[in-house]
Amino acid sequence: MIKEKTKKDRNTKLRIIPLGGLGEVGKNMTVIEYGNDIVVIDCGMGFPDKDMPGVDLVMPDISYLIKNAEKIRGVLITHGHEDHIGAVPYLLRQINVPIYGTRLSLGIIEGKLDEDPPEYYPELYTVEAGDTVNLGVFKAEFVHVNHSIADACAIALKTPVGTVFHTGDFKLDVSPIDDKMIDLTRIGEIGKSGVEILLCESTNAERAGFTPSERTVGSSLERIFAQYSDKRLIIATFSSNVHRVQQIINASARHGRKVAIIGRSMVNIIGAALELGYMELPDGVLIDISEIKKYRQNEITLITTGSQGEPMSALYRIAFGAHDKIKVTSNDVVVLSSSAIPGNEKLVGSIINALVESGVKVVNDSTEEIHVSGHACREELKLMMALTRPKYFMPVHGEARHLNANRELAEFMGIPSNNIFVSEIGKVLEIDKKSAKFSGTVPSGNVLVDGLGVGDIGSVVLRDRKHLSEDGLVIVALTLDNEGFILSGPDIVSRGFVYVKESGDLLREARSVVSSTVEKMLSGKSRKNKDLNTVRTQIKEDLAKFIYKETKRRPMILSVIMSV
Ligand SMILES: [Zn+2]
Ligand SMILES: [Zn+2]
Known about the structure:
Elements: H1 2-11, E1 14-20, E2 29-34, E3 37-41, E4 57-60, H2 63-67, E5 72-76, H3 82-85, H4 88-92, E6 99-101, H5 103-115, E7 124-126, E8 132-135, E9 138-144, E10 153-159, E11 162-166, H6 184-192, E12 195-201, H7 215-227, E13 232-236, H8 242-254, E14 258-262, H9 264-275, E15 300-304, H10 314-319, E16 332-336, H11 345-357, E17 361-363, H12 378-388, E18 390-396, H13 400-412, E19 427-431, E20 436-441, E21 446-450, E22 453-454, H14 459-471, E23 473-480, E24 486-495, H15 504-522, H16 532-551, E25 556-563
Parallel strand pairs: 3-5, 5-6, 6-7, 11-12, 12-18, 13-15, 13-16, 14-15, 16-17, 23-25
Antiparallel strand pairs: 1-2, 1-19, 2-3, 4-21, 8-9, 9-10, 10-11, 19-20, 21-22, 23-24
Helix pairs in contact: 5-9, 7-8, 15-16
This protein binds zinc ion (2 copies).
């Protein structure tokens, strides 16, 4: 019996399966499997792109985890950003798994679960950097790293095959706001004792040098506060960047300003950060938004969400004059303490334009160093590789170009190209004591969430939405009497297709096209027994041909035939 088990053990392979975060920005999730045990690192959501109109959120396809639910020993969270925790409520709607993370990460997750109670309320285990937890055959150690959110960790996972080191999102900050530098010593020790494979984030793999310290933002803020001492300051940033928010509050206190927080997620996260001790408030600095009228304009700092131009965020409403408490004038300076995530540039641009048109001075990262990235640039990535000295390397967390840039860095660092695996979501990498190779796939992809429904939007629905948004809709309606003659109509109604008032001729001709189709189809003796579905299809075809000929457009056409 024992002998058999040893033999089986020898044949068991470590399987590394990314379910998201490769070839895309968002929904980071990696499955690590050995025999009867699985751990999952992160459980993030993605964001819809322009090919998914009307979709609110994107979740990873977790059918592999649902199928293997009894093997899952835990979900390990590296940090509290949405692209790492956003799919936790979605996961818990389907399976019950314990979740491990640091205090801030779990604090943010708890907030989500309170807002939207899941099917299964999970066991939440709080860990601190330096802690190790046993999960089946695995031992997971959380290692402190710097990032644009507090309490971020890398994970060193001891497996029967060797150590898997997953960096999470990280940067090297030698002067971080909380004075807790990334634990390079520990990473070096782990490297010395042997790392089988390094899963390394790739976000900034195309950028040379080092990412500047969060503290550089402090000096820029200081300059801005001094320069605009006669104006009200409105500063937009990511709500989860508690160190940034702390620096804004500190600068405000030093310059005798009161601070009001606007935007729901900002209020929530700052609340959690204060409660958990990640932020400290100088006495009497924070005031409620309703109190700002008691102070002069230049005694106020407003901290707000919306730095990515999110429609309906506080900054968006302020910029377009739709905020009920904040109206901006030339007495305001708006500081965007962020950089636009790829894809959001246009939205951010439209906010800047709207503000400038209202006479507001806008300061952003093209004019001042008021944002630094939370991700490692090339020198930091090289440092990570040098310290961990992995046998195998897999770039993660990035689009194809980022993964590839990271692959080139690894080659530069001396990792043989045969030992570098640029993977895809759903692709299985198998590692045993001797070798590593790709071996098959598991189901993976996007589950689209639209309002309250989850996963009920198929490709047909998406295609229709795209079609409607691009070419509009034409509806033909007519009523037949019981003899099969047209009683009323055809009426044509269009939306998003042509400007009706200027298209009288087109619509008139379209009506006569429909009439003649109906006549043609229903002529003859048995007209009242004709199959109306065929008539409907023919109307659509003829009308589509006519419209394309006249307008070179293909609106969606619906035809409705009523018979009395
Ligand atoms: Zn992050
Ligand atoms: Zn991330």
